[in-house]
Here is the input.
Amino acid sequence: MATRLGPSQQVQLHSFWNLLQTTDEKVQRELYVLLYRKYANKKEGGKTQAPTFLQMQGVLKGQGDEQTDRQMLDEYLQEKYGV
Here is the structure.
């Protein structure tokens, strides 16, 4: 079952992915563990080996730029935490 994303959702996903790329490897590994725990039991069909976070690196890399990523991060922080 594939998820269809709208244009703004794709920009958010790419910006989020690019932000993750700037973190260190330990943070990336822990995030992958958290995501796996949340979604692993929702898989349909047979069991397949999930790729590691580092194997996925670059797969979702966006066409965005650093300025757009920074703006979206700032908007998120403002909205979520009032920072």
